[in-house]
Amino acid sequence: MTTTAIPQPAGGIYGWLAATDHKRVALMTMAAGLLFFVVSGVNALLVRLELARPGDQVLSHDTYNEAFTMHGAGMVYLFVTPVALAIGVYMVPLQVGAAQILAPRLVLFGFWLFFLGGVIMQAAWLTSDGPGKAGWTAYIPLSDAVNTPGKGMDMFLLGVCAATAGALLFGISILGTILRLRAPGMTMLRIPVFCWTMLVTSLMVVMTFPVLITAMALLLADRHGAGIYDSSSGPIAFQNLFWFYGHPVVYVWFFPFLGVVAEVVAVFSGRRLWGYRTLTFALLAFTALSMSVWAHHMFTTGQSNNKYFALTSTLLLVPAGIEYLGIGATMWRGSIRLSTAMLFALAFAIQFLIGGLTGIMLGSPALDYQLHDSYFVVAHFHYTAFGGALFGAFAAAYYWFPKMTGYVLRDGLGKLHFWLMVVGFNLTFFPQFIAGWAGMPRRVSDYPATTLLETVNLLSTIGGFVLTVAVIIFLVNVVLSLRDRTVAEADPWGGFTLEWATSSPPPPDNFDEPLPRITSETPVLDRRIGPPAEAKA
Amino acid sequence: MTRAWAYVALWGVMLAVLAIVQVAFDLHGLQFGLAIGVAAVILVIGGLQFLRPPREGIRALPENSYATLMVAVGILMVALGILFGQWLYLIGAGVLVLGLGGVARELLAARRSAG
Predict the structure, then answer these.
(1) Residues B110 and B84 in one domain
(2) Is residue B7 helix, strand or coil?
(3) In terms of domains, do B47 and B72 share one?
(4) Do B47 and B71 belong together in one domain?
(5) CA of A15 to nearest chain B CA: how many angstroms apart?
(6) Which residues does A323 contact at the CB level (< 8 Å), separation at least 6?
(7) Which of A191, A327, A418, B89 has its CA 20 to 30 A from that of A238?
(8) For residue range B70-100, what is the model confidence (pLDDT) as tens digits?
């Protein structure tokens, strides 16, 4: 595929708002996602302040419900999901050697749906009834017009639909780019591992996001008298539709960052990814299983195929183990450089492992009956979503910031950010395992005044503020690095894949120079040291 | 290069097998329907990819598309109009029509420049 020469994009804000350049749309999405992350983080801090001690502290029960709902929904619909996909929107065309993303207008359209959807969701705070307060899951009957009346909940649902539709369009474009716009010579078994993770992520997005949009749109209609979920099986039908999206979306946050981590570990170990072909097929199996476990969230309803979903949930261990083996074996006897990106990648692997193993516990119906809706689930969820996805996102930030901006983030501040994140994260969320094990339910603003629960909740709140300091340090690092600039070379890390074969930041049509010959999944490394033995053969 | 369809189809087959395994357990209609339905859609996508090889040739790309932005704003104004009243609905419909017209104009211009 060739394209016409693209004129240099206009500067200033007008050059950005309607830009069809995938890189600009991705950067706008990341910036908007960061904004929503800060807003949702403030909600989390309010929740933690309320729980620092038993009894009522700073929020009424109603406002507490709004705060934890808008925290969860903001993080899920407006931060992690769109940002994970935005990294793909930026990097996939570069890594497959394409001049543009497939359907650039669709991506721009997706950004505005996502951003305006987020604005609508947050604007619901201004309504007299407040925003959504039925949890990010919006379970029926909690979210119906009787239990949560008012326009705020309607705006919440509309915002979720719009933001998810935007993310869906990102997924469609990424999928099409990988399938249809690869450079000559780049067969499917020569695309970088990050593109493989984006391919399987996009497949999940394309299949599951329309189900959520449908479920939420039907709920909106239901609140205005349509009576769709009115039957006795209505709430269970909604849960099935919701979790058909809700579980795969956890993997939409995981797989892109697994790809990032695999790239970072390979580059900073100075070795090609071990077992590339095995890992790609394990990825396919991993994602197929990920699409087949959703009803383990419904074990306790008595309306689910528990044995089947326990089996598939446990089987996830096999491909996950293969992925971990690949990452570990890549580092084995490598020349490891402990850059900030590498540190975040290693923390991702360890912390997600804790999230994954506790997930296997929750995948057992017998244990799930004990732990369901407890703080144990909250801790497990955050070890995957925060300990995994967010640490992966920061690995991506430190790794690709020079490529995206042309400037390097400061390493000293980066390492301070990393260690505060590790301490803050584990201080916040590990005590929640103990609280859950002790029987503390989730989504409550008060708890019994026992020594154990008081201690673990106070520790958790202190951890939340340490995390806040860590995030502030990251933001300061970004501002300082953009103000007092250290110019990045085209390939500051000794990268392996095609994005490092172009300038930092890349030109509008991505590549000014001819692409290197593509004989493996690491064409830039091949140009430096020659192709791997199997490619020569 | 042309075998991308095979990987999509392979994934569809994996989903289909996992869906069919449900039959060996206490089958739940909606859960089975969702799983097998998605497997079928993926197999169709794989088939379409097989039938439509990657495009070759020159494609004109616009630098900016304010019309696309207007389409998004128009759609969301229409949706909000359902909650807040007909006035917003009608303004949104106007913005949407203008946006769609703009996108059509961009596409025609791109076709002319390619020709």
Answers:
(1) yes
(2) helix
(3) no
(4) no
(5) 7
(6) A258, A279, A282, A283, A286
(7) B89
(8) 999 999 999 999 889 999 999 999 999 999 9
Q: What is the pTM of this model?
A: 0.94
Residue B57 lies in a domain: no
- Residue A4: its pLDDT value, please? 43
The shortest C-alpha distance from A395 to chain B (Å) reads 28
Name chain B contacts of A117, Cβ cutoff 8 Å: 76
Tens digit of pLDDT for each residue in A160-177?
A: 999 999 999 999 999 999
Chain A positions in Cβ-Cβ contact with residue B41 (cut-off 8 Å): 207
Answer yes or no: is pLDDT of A49 > 60. Answer: yes
Is pLDDT above 80 for A537? Answer: no
A-B Cβ pairs (cutoff 8 Å, strict): 164
Give strand pairing partners of A441: A374
- C-beta atoms of A20 and B64 within 8 A: yes
Structure tokens that stand for A506 in this block: 């890349």
Tell me which of A5-9, A84-88, A394-398 is least confident.
A5-9
- SS3 state of residue A349: helix
pLDDT bracket for residue A535 (50, 70, 90):
low
> Token pair of A175, please?
């999928």
Residue of B nearest to A165 (CA): B72
pLDDT digits (tens, 9 = 90+) for B15-70: 999 999 999 998 888 999 999 999 999 999 999 888 887 765 545 666 789 999 99
Query: Do residues B80 and B106 both lie within one domain?
Result: yes
* B28 within a domain of the structure (yes/no): yes
**Where exactly are the structural domains of chain A?**
18-536
Enter the CATH code of domain A18-536: 1.20.210.10
| Interface predicted TM-score (ipTM) | 0.93
Which one of A6, A151, A206 has the shortest CB-CB distance to B61? A6
Which residues of chain B does A289 touch, with a Cβ-Cβ cutoff of 8 Å? 18
Q: Which of residues 16-45 of B touch A (CB under 8 A)?
A: 18-19, 21-22, 24-28, 30-31, 34-35, 38, 41-42, 45
Give ∠ CA A347-A349-A353 in degrees, rounded to 5.
Answer: 115
Q: Specify whether the CB–CB gap between A126 and A151 falls below 8 A.
A: no
- Cβ contact B63–A10 (<8 Å): yes
Domain region containing B103? 66-114
The CA distance from B101 to the nearest CA of chain A, in Å, is 14
B112 has a chain A CB within 8 A of its CB: no
Round to whole Å and give the CA distance between A193 and A517. 18
Number of domains in chain B: 2
